[in-house]
Structure prediction request, 328 residues.
Amino acid sequence: MRTDLIKQVDSIRSNFDTVINELSKIIVGQDVLVKHLFTCLLCGSHALIEGVPGLGKTLIVRSLSKILDLKYSRIQFTPDLMPADILGTNIVKEDNNGSRYFEFYKGPIFGQLILADEINRASPKTQSALLEAMQEDKVTVFGTQYHLNPPFMVLATQNPIEMEGTYPLPEAQLDRFFFKLRVSYPDHQELRKIIDKTTEDYQYELKRVIGADEILEMRSIVKLVPIATHVKDYAIRLTLASHPDNADASEQTREYVLFGASPRGVQSLILAGKVSALLDGRYNVSIEDVNNVAKPALRHRIVLNIRGETEGIDLDDIIDEIIRKVQG
Prediction:
């Protein structure tokens, strides 16, 4: 590997450590969540964040936008939210001569780091307004295409315990999220630190660590990380084993799964595995890297059958069993 490339790879690890240190000024714990968000950022993709209210999901996203110097937009999803509220719309204006004309008013989607808060509270029609933006980094309004400023990233949140007045995300939209992340509840020591930072005279000021140009450069480096054929094959077998009719499917998969992960699942495993290797200071992807990202990459791409839903089967347990079966 060239010396200049080694320096670029080392800078990714350094940038990540700096982001973690800067976030620690305001965020307590959640290092795994931040690592996965950073992974999504370097892979040019989006994340669905699941957690009960009050765990700091919004604060983390807003703080990241300051540290990364990205334009931040927040969209609060509600049942009456319309696609035009997200994308924007044409408004009638009048010039000095009294002639009227249309001018496009850009909606909040024209940011770089987009917080789609409680995304499952809006109707499927409104949720679908994000699909083109997430997939192609552009939107089409009244037949005109508008490109979004890179880097563009959607971080959507949803509450896992309150289902009243919510609309489940369609599988096609779920599949466009690179990761589905779960926010863990703080332990005793973390709660004490949270209290100290929020109920006392604690001052903090977040500083810019990296910007858009550095992020785009790091993204180009990620794809250069080599991956051995046997590791690729392992990621493929892992994805195929999530299908109940596959020869490598585990007993739980056959019993509780209706559909397995799509091809986007294996793409996520490979790309996220590359970032995992870089953040660990290595220049090639291992099977352990793939295993480390398997849950966030696959948990939203596996669909339970009726029995799995009614028995409350945890998809993370199924993924653990899939890993054991494929490795065994």
Observations:
- The mean pLDDT is 87.
- The chain is about 45% helix and 15% strand.
- The two ends are 33 Å apart (CA to CA).
